[in-house]
Design goal:
elongated; 126 residues; 88% helix; 6 helices; mainly alpha
Amino acid sequence: MRNIIISIILFTSVFSVVVFANKQLETLCDTVIESCDRIEKYIDSDNYKDAYEECLSLLNSLQKENFVSSIYVNHMDLDTITNQVVSTSLRLKCKEKCEALASIHVVKYSSSMLKELQKPNFKNIL
């Protein structure tokens, strides 16, 4: 009887942690995608200063909020996103429009794929 109770408590704990971490990751990916959309609009309108500030804000939020996500998923995925954001900020500082847009598209695509991989479906399981 005691083993059953311990097993149920452990299962509930693990399930709760996975649900919490998944929610945190989805929130982080949504934040990144929304920020990328704003950066793209700034770049399209040649407003490099606001794009750079938004990029730094995105970098700060990635560094602050990725602790739970880096435990839950492969940290290389989050490192790739962070490195591309740094690359984008440098390209914005140099006012390289094409390269900055390419980098921010990589960030946006990586975030959306990371979010998509966390949804439970047959494609992700098999």
